Amino acid sequence: MSFLDQNRTSPDRSVKKRQPRWSELWLNKKTTPLKHVVFNIQLPDTKDPKNNNNHQNSNKSLISNFSGSDRTLLLNDDILLRILSKLPVSQRNTNSLVCKRWLNLQGRLVRSLKVLDWDFIESGRLISRFPNLSNVDLISGCLVSSRDSPLLLSHKLVSLHVDSWFSSFHVQNYLLLPTDMVDRGIKALASGCPNLRRLVVIGASELGLLSVAEECLTLQELELHKCSDNVLRGIAACENLQILKLVGNMDGFYSSLVSDIGLTILAQGCKRLVKLELSSCEGSFDGIKAIGQCCQMLEELTFSDHRMDGGWLAALSYCENLKTLRFVSCKRIDPSPGPDEYLGSCPALERLQLQKCQLRDKKSVRAMFRVCEAVREVVFQDCWGLDNDMFSLASVCRRIKFLSLEGCSLLTTEGLESAVLSWTELQDLRVVSCKNIKDSEVSPALSTLFSILKELKWRPDTKSLLASNLAGTGMGKRGGKFFKKT
């Protein structure tokens, strides 16, 4: 007997039966369970109109449920936020109208905002709606504007709607929000947006700015209107501040005083300043000297319509790392600069820019070029009083590589040539809208200089340029062929 036979006939050994597989049951014709299953899942008879209607209604309900479901609910907030951030900025308003969830997520992507209504801050809606703001402009919100009035008043950086009874008295007393209200608003903003990096505000006090300095440790840029010496105590607490613009006085709107006291406080507190703009601020030698000695990282300094006392220009020599010096809308540079031996110079200065300034005082302009004798780029734009004598004073700057003249109507070709030929390192020259500089007066020496320049933009007289472009077209001849008599 074989081993297999013994195994089959052995009564003592218990054999375990293997459970049949689904494939075996399906292929085995003797099995009946699957037939019952198949019979139960048979499709309804389409010939029966009653069954057909029920079947169509069930399909419609499934399709409606599928189409009405929000597939974005399967994504968490982080993934959906990442997807929304990749979409164009022009679609933000449209995306925020989809649902409340998208509205809240879209608000997290907003980084810059200009507030028009102060109630939006005090009600807390600003923080709940835009929790990740880094750039906030509060100028328009700090002004009490009559929105129903069709009269729009614009003055430099300020624009608002006013009533017919408007006067400068009403601006200073009624059209600016009270200081305590402004402080409450910026305190709420600072507590809700600790990652704030840029802030523009008008009429804040020392306490309000102190709260911003305590809450927003990453604040880097601040633009403060209606600034005074006391307010600068709060700004001095912003240790990481790098860009600062102070507006002390705006004619017809408000007036405040920034003197050497405030500039000294500012210099001792904000030692990491890189860019500083003083608009309508007063001061003297001592204030600018304190800024130069304390703010060692200062690279750009702008004076806009300044009211500095005489002799302040010599303090620029203490700004050892200054690279850009800009004058904007200044009626004077320095009324009494003092002797040349006390002026000094800025050794690292690279750019000197003058925009809409009055250059009528020869002594003042001469002192300015003495201080800026190391400059490499000089820009004159719409400056009054820049004639041949004034421009000749720039010949002391021997290292000029770039010169731009725009809107200087008193300067002639002879005055330009006398200074330009002395600059051996000149590489780029731009002359635009200077009507007394004529193409016909260009000398051979000046033409030779033009040929070796790396870049030349020569459009001194727009009328002659227009006439050359219209040559041969028949236009500009008192009607020409367009207005013939019949």
UniProtKB/TrEMBL annotation:
Low complexity compositional bias, start-end: 51-61
Gene3D superfamilies recorded: Ribonuclease Inhibitor (3.80.10.10)
Domain F-box: 74-105
Pfam families for the chain: F-box (PF00646)
UniProt source species: Xanthoceras sorbifolium
Protein name in the entry: F-box domain-containing protein
Superkingdom of origin organism: Eukaryota
Region Disordered, residue ranges: 43-63
